[in-house]
Amino acid sequence: MNFAESQMRQGLYPVIPDTPVILGAEVAGVVEQVGGDADADLLGKRVVAVLFATGGHGGYAEYAIASVEEVIQIPDNVSYDDALAIPVQGLTAYFLLTEAAKISGTDAVLIHAAAGGVGSVAIQLAKILGIGKVFAGASSVSKLELASSLGADVVVNYTDPDWMEQIQTETDGKGLSVILSSGTNDIVKQSFNLLAPHGRFVVYGSLDILSSSFGADQVMQLVFKNQSVTGFYIGSYTAIPGNFKRAADYLLHLVSSGALKIITSSRYELKDAQQAHEDMANRKTVGKVILKIKSN
Q: Which SUPFAM superfamilies does this UniProt record tie to the protein (predicted)?
């Protein structure tokens, strides 16, 4: 499950699907049938898939149809739950860092919602890719403890009134070179002020993007500090031929080797999908949220 699906259900997502609709953009299971252009060897194989090419929906069901280009075999030692974190959250974290933010080893990176599905992967990938200093932001002690255990160098609690000063101290007053932003409007505005000259501010999955405002003061800051603001949508990257399989194979290899840990502590039965959405909206979930169709 993804936070975007919770927003769709509430009518808060920028693009609302026509109803009736079966939500769910990613699935994992065993291949039951293949089309004429697909490799027949996939029959009976354990796979994980994203459903972008077939409309981006349909995962909350016992069966789903996926394009063969968006299907990846799961290594034998990787569970379905762990594999499910790869097609959306995992690839989002990967392309945010490598393509949208264009990170380098000297960067100081702040990752919002650090205990979420994207954030928990992004922290680890940032360290694997050699980022200089990784900052993680969240709003509870338990989530910050998780972020630290995953490799964050500095953690900040948004409920602390001096969290911005903490970051300035840790960067020797230089600010952050990269901010991966998915927070609320207030947190977005506050963290924008922490962006260093030539910094990159990447917006993805904002909780209240439809009510966000970007005024003259922010534009002037961008101009005189040579900063940039970049939007991010995972579908634009996976649509590039070969991108999905290349990146998904890489991440699954990291999971299989033990280099990348997937947090999947939030599991729900299909009948409890609405409760799962409400828990995500209220920040009660940690890591990847899994919707279990049946025991497997």
A: GroES-like (SSF50129), NAD(P)-binding Rossmann-fold domains (SSF51735)
Distance of CA 292 to CAs 103, 183, 269, 270, 272, Å? Answer: 35, 28, 5, 6, 10
What pTM, to 2 d.p., does this model score? 0.91
Where do the structural domains in the chain lie, given as residue ranges? 3-87+241-292, 88-235
The pLDDT value given to residue 177: 97
Residue 292: the pLDDT is 93
**What is residue 2's predicted lDDT score, i.e. its pLDDT?**
86
Check residue 259 and report its DSSP letter. Answer: S
DSSP state of 16: P
Strand order in the sheet with 195-203: 154-157, 133-138, 108-111, 176-181, 195-203, 228-231
Asked if 14 and 210 count as a contact pair (C-beta separation under 8 A), the reply is: yes
User: In angstroms, how far apart are the furthest CA atoms of the chain?
Assistant: 60
Q: Name the residue among 182, 60, 29 with its Cα closest to residue 110.
A: 182
Q: Are 135 and 114 in contact (CB under 8 A)?
A: no
**Contact present, 248 and 74 (Cβ < 8 Å):** no
pLDDT of residue 208: 54
What are the structure tokens assigned to 65, written together?
Answer: 């149809």
Strands (E) located in 76-170: 108-111, 133-138, 154-157
Q: Please state which CATH number belongs to domain 88-235.
A: 3.40.50.720
CA 92 to chain centre: 5
Phi, psi for 264 (deg, rounded to 5): -130, 60
What is the phi-psi region of residue 198: left when phi exceeds 0, alpha when psi lies from -120 to 50, beta otherwise? left
Q: What pLDDT is recorded for position 157?
A: 97
Low-confidence ranges of the chain (pLDDT < 50): 296
**pLDDT tens by residue, 192-214:** 999 999 999 999 876 555 555 67
